[in-house]
């Protein structure tokens, strides 16, 4: 990773490596099961698995940005947003990403990109309308941290592998059932076992990505606050965004909910869900961490 002035996070790096290792291992085992049960369809299985993985790695950031309605803007079209990103990139000593705006009243922001050279940072019109300049810089510093630490790329790939297991299940079953050996006992066993294995793969990958997602949000809060030196501004933005979510129509929130793992704050807080399934840590935990950072920075200044 190119050096930046963002505070490094070895805990995040270790979690990203561990998550990718276990999800990759899970995926390899899953493909191995498909190949063992449906030997006649192995060329199709390998072709589809390899093709989808390569396509996901190269195009996932564009797919995510398009799905969330991001539209790249020039400095003339969004001078204040570009100015904030310029200041933060200079402060962090990192390349400036593409800057985009999503036309949505849901107050949020997100970052995409598999590396710093093709990254994009996007804010919604609802966020730009509601936040003060210092609060907006706090949110953008948080999002740029995802780019600097590359955890946004890891999250995108890790999330996709669980979905890919489901796609591969349908492809494998179709290929096995339509092959010349479709009447043998292996195919009958496959019809029973593959959906079960696929469900297990999806469930484990889902839990692993949720664990990583919650930690990376805390890491981005910490790195963004340390970069700007204004954790109180980020805390104010978090409080304001979370409070404003309650005023957004539920229909709009549900439309944004599938992309919660990418957002600065979840579109739906998931109060009815267990913390194990949440994509973000609780607001209280994030605010407490920022309060501790503010206290540490205050002590450093007095010292």
UniProtKB/TrEMBL annotation:
One of its GO terms (molecular function) is metalloendopeptidase activity. The active site is at residue 143. GO terms for cellular component: plasma membrane. It is a multi-pass membrane protein. It is found in: Cell membrane. InterPro entries: HtpX_protease (IPR050083), Pept_M48_protease_HtpX (IPR022919), Peptidase_M48 (IPR001915). Keywords: Cell membrane, Hydrolase, Membrane, Metal-binding, Metalloprotease, Protease, Stress response, Transmembrane, Transmembrane helix, Zinc. Its EC number is 3.4.24.-. Zn(2+) binds at residues 142, 146, 217. The chain crosses the membrane at residues 12-35, 41-59, 152-175, 187-208. Binds 1 zinc ion per subunit. Residues 75-292 form the Peptidase M48 domain. GO terms for biological process: proteolysis. Its cofactor is Zn(2+). Pfam families: Peptidase_M48 (PF01435). It is an enzyme of class 3 (hydrolase). PANTHER family: PROTEASE HTPX, PROTEASE HTPX HOMOLOG. Belongs to the peptidase M48B family. This is Protease HtpX homolog. It comes from Streptomyces bingchenggensis (strain BCW-1).
């Amino acid at each position: 990773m190119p050096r930046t002035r963002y505070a490094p996070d070895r805990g995040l790096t270790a979690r990203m490596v561990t998550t990718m290792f276990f999800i990759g291992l899970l995926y390899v085992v899953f493909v191995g099961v498909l190949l063992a049960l449906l030997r006649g369809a192995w060329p199709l299985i390998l072709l589809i698995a390899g093709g989808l993985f390569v396509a996901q790695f190269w195009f996932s950031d564009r797919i995510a940005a398009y799905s969330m309605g991001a539209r790249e803007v020039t400095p003339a079209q969004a001078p204040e947003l570009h100015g904030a990103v310029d200041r933060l990139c200079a402060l962090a000593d990192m390349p400036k990403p593409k800057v985009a705006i999503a036309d949505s009243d849901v107050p949020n922001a997100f970052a995409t990109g598999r590396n710093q050279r093709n990254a994009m940072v996007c804010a919604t019109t609802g966020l730009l309308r509601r936040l003060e300049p210092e609060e907006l810089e706090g949110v953008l510093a948080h999002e740029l941290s995802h780019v600097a630490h590359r955890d946004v790329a890891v999250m995108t790939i890790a999330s996709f592998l669980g979905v890919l297991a489901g796609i591969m299940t349908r492809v494998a079953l179709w290929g096995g059932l339509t092959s010349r050996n479709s009447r043998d006992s292996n195919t009958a066993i496959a019809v029973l076992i593959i959906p079960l294995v696929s469900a297990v793969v999806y469930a484990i990958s889902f839990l692993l990505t949720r664990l990583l997602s919650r930690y990376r949000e805390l890491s981005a809060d910490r790195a963004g606050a340390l970069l700007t030196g204004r954790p109180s501004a980020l805390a104010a933005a978090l409080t304001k965004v979370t409070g404003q979510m309650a005023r957004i129509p539920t229909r709009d929130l549900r439309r944004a909910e599938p992309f919660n793992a990418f957002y600065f704050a979840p579109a739906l807080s998931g109060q009815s869900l267990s913390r194990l399934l949440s994509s973000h840590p609780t607001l209280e935990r994030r605010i407490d961490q920022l309060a501790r950072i503010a206290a540490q920075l205050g002590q450093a200044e007095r010292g």
